[in-house]
Amino acid sequence: MLELVGCGLSSLTMQDSELLSKWSKMRHLDLSRNSFGKDILRILGALPFLKFLSLHDNAMEGPLSNQGLCELKKLEELDLSYNHIEGILPPCLSNLTSLRLFDVSGNQFIGNHLSSLLGSLNSLEYIDLRHNRFEGLFSFSSFVNHSKLEVVAITSDNDKFEVETEYKDWLPMFQLKVFVLPNCNLNKRSGDFPKFLLHQNTLSFIDLSHNNLEGSFPNWLLVNNTKLEYLSLRNNSFVGEFHLSPYYNSYTCWMDVSDNQLIGHIQLNMGEMVPYLIHINLSRNAFGGSIPSSIGKMRILEVLDLSSNNLSGEVPKQLVRNCRSLRSLALSNNKFHGQTFSDDFKLTQIEYLRLNDNQFTGPLTNVVFNLSKLSMLDISNNNMSGKILDSMNNMIRLRTLIMRNNAFNDQFPCALIPNVFMDISHNSFSGTLTSCSNPNLGVLEHVHLQGNHFTKFIPEALINLSKLVTLDVSDNNLSGRIPLSIRLLANLSILILRGNQLGGSIPTQLCQLNKISLMDLSKNSFTGSIPSCLSNITFGAIGAADLAFAQTPLEFYSTRHIFYVYENVLLPHLDMVFEIGGPDGTYDKVDEVEFITKSRTNSYRAGSILNFMSGLDLSCNKLTGEIPFELGKLSNVRALNLSHNLLIGPIPKTFSNLTQIESLDLSYNNLSGNIPTDLINLNFLAVFIVAHNNLSGKILDRKAQFGTFEASSYEGNPFLCGPPLENNCTAIVDLPYSPTTASLNETKGKWYDIDQVAFSASFVRTYITFLFGFAAVLYINPYWRQRWFYLIEEGMWSSYYFVCNTVYKLLRFQPSV
C-alpha cells in the first residue's frame, strides 16, 4: 500500500518509476489531491496486481488513452473523479471485469454508449458518473440475448401486490450498491426511468436528480431495495401519488423527491413508516391536504421541507413539539393558517425557519426569541401583526431576518437586528432607529425599511455601516437632509430614498459612492441644481464584475457531506446536498429591489438581473438649472429619469453617449431647443418621454427605436412638429423667434412683421380700459382721491423747482448753492 495524498506532486522521477517497477505486486495506490497529468497512467500500467487506484482531484486533461489503465486487469476500485478529462471512456475499460468501484465524476466525458462499456463489468457495485456530459445514453438494450426473461416488479396499490411482466433483451448481472448519476438528462430520447433498476435490489445510495425522467413515480424502487438509505430523485417530471408500502424499508435516513409533479395527500402514517429519517424534501410538488400529525414521531428528523405545495390547515402541534432535532423547517408558499409561534413551539435546535407566503396570523411571541441557534427567519407575506417585544437578547446568531408584508406595528426592537440581511418592509413600524446600538449594525449588508412610518432623519446608525450594500428606506416619513457622512458607505450599490420628505440640495458627497448601480431620490423636495459630479459614479460598470448581489449558500445545509463507507474505505467526496432554496442550494429570496423604469415599477432580485441593472431617478423634486452635460458620461446607465422638476435649457447633446440607455424620461420640465439628432443612435432605447416642455423644431426621423414612440412621448410641446404629432412643420410660421422658427418663416416674411391695424386697435382698447378703471377707483374712495391730488400737487412743485434750477444753472454757468 502506498498513499501520497495531497503532496503537491506533478510527476514521477526516473528513480520513482524504477521504485514502482520493484513494487510490481502493489495492490493499493492513492495519489489523490496532487497535480499529476494523464501520463501517469502509462507508468502505472507496470503494476498488474493493483486493486485500488485513486487519482481523485489531479490535473489530468484531454482524452483518456487506452495505454496503461486498461492493463490493470485486476483493478477493483478506480477513482478518476474531479479532473479535466474529456472525450469518451476507453472501450477497453470493459475488460476490467473485476471492477467493483467506478468513479469518473467531475470530468467532461461524453458520448459512448455506457451500456456497452459497463454491461460486462459483472462485479460493479459502485458507479458515480455525475458532473459529466452523458445524455440519454444509459440503457442496456444494445445487449441482445434473445432469452426473453420475465421481470417481476413489486409495486404497491392499496397494499396489494401485482406482478408486471416485461420482456427485455438483456438482464444485467451486477448488483449495485451505489448509483450516482445526476444532471445527465437520462433517457433523453424517451424520458423513461432506467429499466435496468428493476433488477437492482441491493441499492443503498441512489441519486438520479436533475434528469429528465418522466412517468409514474417509481414506488417499486423503494420496495425492491430493502437496504436503501439515501434516495434523491429531485427535479424530474414524475407524476402520480407518492405512497410508501408497508413492506418498505423503514431505515431510510435521506429522501428527496422535490421538484416533480406529485399529487395527493401526504401519507397519514408517514411518520410511522420512516421514523428514522434525518432529511425529507417534498417541496415544489402539488401535494394537498394537511401535514399528518405522525410527522411528530420522527424524533431524529433534522430537515423537513414541504414548501411550494398546496398544503393547508394548521401546523400540527406534534411537529413543533416533538421534532426537537429539527435544524431546518420550510413550510413556505402554501396555505397554512393559524398561530405558529405558540407555547407548543419547542424547536430549540432550529437554525433555518421559513414560513413565508402563507396565511399565518398572530404576534411574534417570546418563543421565537429563545431560539438561540436561529440563523435565518423568514415570515414574510403573512397576516401576522402586533407589537414585537424587545426581550430577545438570545438571538445572537441571526443572519437573515425577513418580515415584509405583514401588519407589525409600533417600534422595531434594535435587539432583533440581524448581522447580514434585514427586510422589515411594508409593515406599520414607526419611530426611529437612531438609538440602536446593536453590535450587528456594524456588519449589516442589506437593509430594507421601505413602506413603514419611520420619521425624522435618516439614522446615523445606518450611515456608519461600512459593509452596507443595499439601503432602501423609501416610502416613509423621513425628513431633513441627506447626511454628508453618506460618503463613508464605500460598498453601497443600492440607494433608494424615494417617497419621503427629504429636502435641501443633493450633496456632492453622493458622487463618492463609486459602486452605486441604482440611485433613486425621487418624490422628495430636493432643490438646487443637479450635481455634475454624478457622472463620476459608474452606475453598473463594476456591478457585474463584483457581483455584489451574488447569492451565497446557506452556512450549514448547503454543503453538508454524507460520508459513505464502501468496503471499509471512507469516501468523503460522495455527498448529498441540502438544497433548501433554489436548485443550486442557495436561498432564492434574499435581496429584492423595486425601481421604476420604462414607466412601470419593476422588481429586481438578487442572483439575476439585479447584478446588471443600473439607473438614476431624480424625478418629482424641485431641481432647477440646466441638465449637466456631464451626465452624458454615464455610458452604462440603463434608466435615467429627471421628470417633474423645474429644469431649463436644452437636452444635452452628450446624451448620445448613453449607449446602454433603455429608458429616458425628461418630461414635465421647462426644457427648450431641439431634440438632439444624435439620440437616434441609441439602439437600446425603449422608452423616450419629453412631454410637457418647451421643445421646438422637428421630431427625429421615425427610424430605429424612434419609430416606436407614440405622440404621448412628445405632447405638451406646442412648437414641436412632425410625426407622430399632427403639427405640420411647413405650416408653422408665427412661432416666437428662435433659430429654428426663423428659418421656418423665411417664405412668409420676417419674424418681426406686425399687423399695424390690429396693434393700434388693441392699444387703444387697453388705454381706455385702464383710464376709466382708474377714474372709477378715485371716485369711489375719497382717501385715495385725496392722496392722488396731493401726489399731483407734489409733482407739480417738484417739476417747477427742477425747471427753475436748470434754467438758473444754464444762465449762470455755475452750480447752484
Descriptive report:
With 817 residues, the protein is of the alpha/beta class. Among the domains are: 529-540 and 614-733, Ribonuclease Inhibitor (Leucine-rich repeat, LRR (right-handed beta-alpha superhelix)); 767-812. It has a 25-stranded parallel β-sheet, with no helix packed on it. Strand 2, helix 2 (40-44) and strand 3 form a beta-alpha-beta unit. Helix 11 crosses helix 12 (782-812). It is elongated, with a radius of gyration of 39 Å.
The CATH class of one domain turns out to be: Alpha Beta
Ranges with pLDDT <50 over ≥5 residues?
140-169, 542-589, 733-753
Shape: elongated
**Into which percentage range does the β-strand content fall?**
15-25%
Largest sheet: 25 strands, parallel
**What is the average per-residue confidence, as pLDDT, rounded to a whole number?**
80
Question: What oligomeric state best describes the polypeptide chains here?
Answer: single chain
- What is the number of helices? 12
Kindly state the percentage of residues in helix: 10-25%
Q: The CATH topology of one domain is what? A: Leucine-rich repeat, LRR (right-handed beta-alpha superhelix)
Distance between the termini: 129 Å
Membrane topology: Single-pass membrane protein
Keywords: Cell membrane, Glycoprotein, Leucine-rich repeat, Membrane, Repeat, Signal, Transmembrane, Transmembrane helix
Pfam families: LRR_1, LRR_8
Family: Belongs to the RLP family.
